Automatic annotation (TrEMBL):
Any Gene Ontology CC annotation: cytoplasm
InterPro entries: Depp_CoAkinase (IPR001977), P-loop_NTPase (IPR027417)
Annotated pathway: Cofactor biosynthesis; coenzyme A biosynthesis; CoA from (R)-pantothenate: step 5/5
Annotated Pfam families: CoaE (PF01121)
PROSITE patterns: DPCK
Gene3D superfamilies per UniProt: P-loop containing nucleotide triphosphate hydrolases (3.40.50.300)
Binding, ATP: 11-16
Gene name per UniProt: coaE
Family in the record: Belongs to the CoaE family.
Annotated protein name in UniProt: Dephospho-CoA kinase
Function: Catalyzes the phosphorylation of the 3'-hydroxyl group of dephosphocoenzyme A to form coenzyme A.
Keywords: ATP-binding, Coenzyme A biosynthesis, Cytoplasm, Kinase, Nucleotide-binding, Transferase
Biological source species: Acidaminococcus fermentans (strain ATCC 25085 / DSM 20731 / CCUG 9996 / CIP 106432 / VR4)
EC annotation from Swiss-Prot or TrEMBL: 2.7.1.24
CDD domains in UniProt: DPCK
Length: 195
């Protein structure tokens, strides 16, 4: 089994590539989706969170009150660190379950915006980065979300830069051109793994 770590930056096109690979029938683990799931009512992860922070972080329905959790994490770096540690561990368990379940598949994808920030490259065979120059990242993010240039730039600054990620990736998928051009690169790279 070849494990491909798929990552990118804000609006670089990672979800576009991920959807394309899924369409081809390749199993994809969605790290962001998993992070939402592990915080669902009744999950062991949510129990760990209430053990750590109390029932005050729950909504009346027993779900995680994300606003309240974010408020506490914002005011206390210790809370933020503990929250991240609990959620990251739970997501990594899910990831490892996914990898075990797909042992027999020739190729699987770990789709994670923070793949490199979280050190997940160590469980991958190759890292694919969906790349855009920052100016185009800002342009596409503004079109997509209606955020201002300042808001987008501020979010980009909080992540590892795509230039830095580029140095750590084995494959760079350049998304400055058309979608077709992007898909052609994906097909070419896949053919190297699945001849
Ligand atoms: P984020 O992690 O910020 O959600 P992402 O890396 O997953 O972003 P996408 O959602 O795939 O990025 O793409 C960002 C936006 O750019 C979307 O609106 C998408 O339709 C558009 N886009 C992606 N690729 C291209 C392309 N080659 N040409 C024009 N627009 C594109």
């Amino acid at each position: 089994m070849t494990v491909i770590g798929l990552t990118g930056g804000i609006a670089s096109g990672k979800s576009t590539v991920s959807a394309y690979l899924k369409e081809k029938g390749i199993p994809v683990f969605d790290a962001d989706g998993a992070a939402w799931e592990v915080e669902k009512a009744g999950s062991p992860c949510l129990r760990e969170l209430t053990d750590a922070f109390g029932e005050g972080i729950l909504t009346p329905e027993g779900e995680l009150d994300r606003k309240e959790m974010a408020r506490r994490a914002f005011h206390d770096p210790g809370v933020l660190q503990q929250l991240n540690a609990i959620v990251h561990r739970a997501v990594e368990q899910k990831r490892d379950g996914f990898l075990a379940a797909h042992r027999q598949d020739p190729v699987v994808i770990l789709d994670a915006p923070l793949l490199l920030e979280c050190g997940w490259e160590k469980v991958t065979d190759t890292v694919w980065l969906v790349y855009l120059p920052e100016e185009e990242q800002i342009r596409r993010a503004m079109i997509r979300s209606g955020m201002t240039r300042e808001e987008v730039t501020d979010r980009i600054r909080k992540q590892m830069s795509l230039e830095e990620k580029k140095k750590k990736a084995q494959v760079v998928l350049d998304n400055q051109g058309s979608l077709e051009a992007l898909y052609r690169q994906v097909d070419r790279e896949l053919a190297r793994i699945l001849p």
